[in-house]
Task: inverse folding
């Protein structure tokens, strides 16, 4: 049996097995086996030279947002509207066949938005260039899920396809440490009562070739999350959900749909430019960026071009963003603003800055 057939038969078996406490171990082991087979499949197809990588698109700007949705939901119309780009819009599916980048300016930040071809069910297993499309979302800072007013319940499908290629949306990485050793077997410290059994943990680790390790589980986790940890190639991404084409329905219908979707989303009309400013603000807020103003030693502060960095960045992160030499030659900094104890406080590289701080960097002579 080849790998695809093995995966299929395990999927079948999982589907047929009733989920309860008695079958938990069995299903956990099956899932771990399937994750292992999928990894093997990836390795095999990439060594055969089959491209499983993403589109080549040059990253630019301070953060990147990937537009993910079914065909014809209005991704290109939205890109054009947010950024002034000129991505082709069509009333038929699969109008966009490549990545089309645009830049949205907001609060001094340059936010790169990537328009992508539409995905369909089965995208994660390669349907319709699905893997190429989905993998762009892996390296994006924010995934924008776009729903169409006529297909408002498709977010599960999108989330599931992303999940299958290793993207976890709005989840925190599980708090589990697997510290591999060269001998000594598997030593498990499970601080959570009534969670996965040691037997199941051992089984999952062994399937993934881990026979000697110290494992520390400090919060409740599911079988899937443990498999994520041992597989090691998961990314944890933030998302935002948009419902497009709301110009086509009346208020009453929209309220009904809102109730049924049951999760937060932003209603917009990309075509009629409704609620676009609110969407821009939401994107900016979700990206969690801050502005830093640089003040050269003895000179005036540059308030025109803030440096845009992720929230909770340190002075050294600022240096790295400017240039790696700046980081190498960094000595200390002076700081004004919300993160400073007093005006012009002298701080080291690890100091965490706040939105709209003013910073003077002093380098080694
Ligand atoms: N009424 C209405 N039509 C819209 C809206 N946004 C997009 N459309 C229309 O929907 C159709 C598809 O729009 P596109 O922007 O090409 O959709 P897409 O998601 O990029 O499609 P693919 O590239 O094929 O995946 C076009 O006919 C658009 O004019 C909207 O807000 N309201
Ligand atoms: Mg398009």
Result:
């Amino acid at each position: 049996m080849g790998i695809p057939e093995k995966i299929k038969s395990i999927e079948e078996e999982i589907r047929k097995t009733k989920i309860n406490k008695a079958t938990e171990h069995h299903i956990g082991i099956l899932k771990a086996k399937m994750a292992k087979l999928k990894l093997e499949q990836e390795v095999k197809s990439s060594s055969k030279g089959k491209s499983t990588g993403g589109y080549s698109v040059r990253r630019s700007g301070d953060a990147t947002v990937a537009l993910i949705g079914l065909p014809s939901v209005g991704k290109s119309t939205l890109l054009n509207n947010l950024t002034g780009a000129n991505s082709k819009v069509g009333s038929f599916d699969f109008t966009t066949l490549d990545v089309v980048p645009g830049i949205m300016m907001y609060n001094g930040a340059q936010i790169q938005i990537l328009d992508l071809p539409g995905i369909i069910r089965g995208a994660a297993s390669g349907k319709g260039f699905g893997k190429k499309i989905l993998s762009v979302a892996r390296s994006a800072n924010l995934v924008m899920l776009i729903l169409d007013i006529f297909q408002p319940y498709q977010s599960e499908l999108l989330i599931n396809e992303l999940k299958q290629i290793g993207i976890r949306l709005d989840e925190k990485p599980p708090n589990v440490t697997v510290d591999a050793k060269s001998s000594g077997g598997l030593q498990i410290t499970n601080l959570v009562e009534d969670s996965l059994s040691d037997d199941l943990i051992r089984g999952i680790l062994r399937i993934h070739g881990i026979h000697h390790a110290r494992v520390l589980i400090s919060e409740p986790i599911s079988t899937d999350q443990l498999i994520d940890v041992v597989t090691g190639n998961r990314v944890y991404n933030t998302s935002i959900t948009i419902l497009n084409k709301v110009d086509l329905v009346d208020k009453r219908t929209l309220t009904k749909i809102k109730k049924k979707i049951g999760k937060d989303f932003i209603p917009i009309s990309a075509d009629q430019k409704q609620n676009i400013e609110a969407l821009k603000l939401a994107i900016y807020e979700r990206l969690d960026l801050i502005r830093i103003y640089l003040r050269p030693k003895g000179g005036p502060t540059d308030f025109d071009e803030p440096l845009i960095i992720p929230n909770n960045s340190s002075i050294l992160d600022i240096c790295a963003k400017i240039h790696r030499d700046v980081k190498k030659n960094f000595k200390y900094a002076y700081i004004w603003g919300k993160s400073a104890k007093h005006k012009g406080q002298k701080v080291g590289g690890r100091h965490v800055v706040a939105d709209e701080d003013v910073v003077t960097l002093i380098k080694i002579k």
